[in-house]
């Protein structure tokens, strides 16, 4: 399959590169890196990167980040490119509105071929050409392999992009790791990556207000034991906790912070000993509450989010409830108790 | 020098291994790993690991951790071993009370030879044999090199120890990194290390009460701008902040937490954008306040701690003030303002 993909990349002339909604470090970095590699192959000015959502502030330090365009109005006509390359998506729906552009069976215009490059376990092989490497830490790791196959040497900018994709998708080298990943990282550092520069941008860039907001939210942090019978059924040991916390509009006002400032909170809570399932509720308006669910191990919080019309993955999902925050808390706790058989 | 050290290790029969007060992941892991290697060389039962302080709870998952003894009363007589190997210490004083045991010029007993294995920039070459590798991420990385030189293959336990030393001394691979470090990590994973197991123990083991305590402490978090003139003098850009926070005895009581639970707080605060100098005050009793100082970059907080009879390093130091916590806050802020020329 790799041979076919390489051949397609070499012979086609116009490319649309896209990735999932809510773009992350890996999706953004791998898209830009791939575009730079294609340009090294001589595809200059015929490579478009487009996502439904804009690049979050935290990734704006990346080289050539302005290449990633988002406003939907800027979308080119489907006929204007031959190949759509979809990165880091289990299925085409993950690209959001972009999916309609690259998969329009009823369109009178020719629709592009699709190359699917991904590392998720549940990839649906939606492409005309599929390169799914479940052992890869990240798509950036796959793009690294691609650069080797294409015989294109990496410079500091490319290495910085790939390093960022790998560090963010492994939680700063804490999971999804293989010897291969670390060997790649060694190569990237030897190409000029300065790890301290990247980690400063990613992990030492928190607004002061975000920590003040976290302080207020922590006052609402609660925990419940997960029933032993349920833990036994899931085969995850004998201790388990459910933890959750609320962020209200008053808290934003008091600390002069914004909903984006809550971004790191869920990762802090993941550090709690024995936590298996956790959620954060964020009040958007009087009758609207956003819920973010996370789980550790085999617990499937996607099913939980689905009950409220949301979605996501087994270990990370979300939903919006049309209820005041305190009512939403009750609704979710009731659903969790039903799920776990309290 | 390496050749001499290898020769000494091979020919001596009795070893005392030690490291610094306030032991960390690297000092503990490298000590145990070195002991295991010496035993592979046939030095069974003649290798003692002893530190002034006990192993913190968080590192108790390490293989053979019970080999590390701490109570001072258990100290052997200096004459009972030929060689003292001091790991991860810039100078002999860093070993605390152990230093008197291995450096007693007025003792009638023969004092042991000292091997100094370290990676700190300011190492004072206090040993009879000094192996100071300033490029190494950690002493664990040096012990890895030693195992190669000695031709001793690593098993999963040894690899787990060295991996833990490296991950903790690089802040989960965020600083002190070279291609070599990542190549070593790749080898360690191929020897059976499961990164997820280690990071679960190190980073997903926080007591619930610790986060509740952090919430209360964050309510006291404050910031001050560092004067531009001072930043210019230190050549560290144009933006800089001083941040600090207090942990009172009432907070421990309210959240049923302990002083150990404050351990991760300072690392969270290091994430604040533009923070250059930070400190946390912890109330020990009505008239006693412990201060932990941290800095990013060239700011020397060791000098600051010295003013209050404390010590440490350029980027991490501490002191105990015999003052109530609010008075200690005023005293320290005054000293910082003097230092920075407000």
TrEMBL record, chains A, B:
Residue ranges occupied by any DDH domain in the UniProt entry: 15-166
Family matches, as InterPro entries: DDH_dom, DHH_sf, DHHA1_dom, Oligoribo/pAp-PDE_c-di-AMP_PDE
Residue ranges of the TM segments: none
Organism from which the protein derives: bacterium (Candidatus Ratteibacteria) CG01_land_8_20_14_3_00_40_19
Annotated Pfam families: DHH (PF01368), DHHA1 (PF02272)
Domain DHHA1: 265-340
Highest taxon of the lineage: Bacteria
Any GO molecular function: nucleic acid binding
The name this protein goes by in its record: Uncharacterized protein
């Amino acid at each position: 399959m790799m041979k076919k993909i390489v051949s397609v990349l070499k012979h086609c002339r116009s490319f649309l590169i896209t990735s999932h909604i809510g773009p992350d470090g890996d999706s953004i970095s791998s898209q830009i890196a791939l575009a730079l590699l294609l340009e090294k192959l001589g595809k200059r000015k015929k490579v478009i990167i487009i996502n439904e959502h804009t690049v979050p502030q935290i990734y704006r330090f990346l080289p050539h980040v302005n290449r990633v365009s988002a406003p939907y109005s800027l979308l080119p006509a489907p006929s204007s490119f031959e190949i759509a390359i979809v990165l880091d998506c289990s299925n085409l729906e993950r690209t959001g509105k972009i999916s309609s552009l690259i998969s329009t069976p009823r369109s009178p215009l020719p629709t592009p071929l699709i190359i699917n490059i991904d590392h998720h376990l549940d990839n649906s092989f939606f492409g005309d050409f599929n390169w799914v490497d479940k052992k890869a830490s990240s798509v950036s790791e796959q793009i690294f392999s691609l650069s080797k196959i294409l015989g294109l040497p990496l410079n500091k900018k490319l290495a910085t992009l790939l390093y960022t994709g790998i560090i963010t998708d492994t939680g700063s080298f804490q999971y999804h790791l293989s010897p291969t990943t670390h060997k790649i990282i060694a190569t990237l550092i030897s190409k000029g990556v300065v790890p301290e520069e990247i980690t400063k941008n990613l992990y030492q860039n928190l607004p002061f207000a975000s920590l003040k907001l976290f302080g207020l939210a922590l006052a609402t942090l609660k925990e419940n034991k997960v029933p032993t019978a349920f833990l036994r059924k899931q085969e995850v040991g004998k201790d388990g906790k459910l933890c959750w916390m609320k962020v209200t509009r008053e808290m934003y006002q008091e600390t002069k912070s914004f909903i984006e400032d809550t971004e790191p909170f869920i990762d802090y809570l993941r550090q709690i000993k024995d936590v298996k399932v956790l959620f954060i509720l964020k009040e958007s308006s009087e009758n609207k509450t956003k819920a973010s669910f996370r789980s550790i191990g085999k617990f499937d919080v996607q099913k939980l989010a689905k009950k409220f019309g949301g979605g996501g993955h087994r270990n990370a999902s979300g939903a919006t409830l049309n209820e005041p925050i305190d009512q939403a808390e009750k609704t979710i706790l009731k659903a969790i108790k039903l799920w776990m058989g309290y």
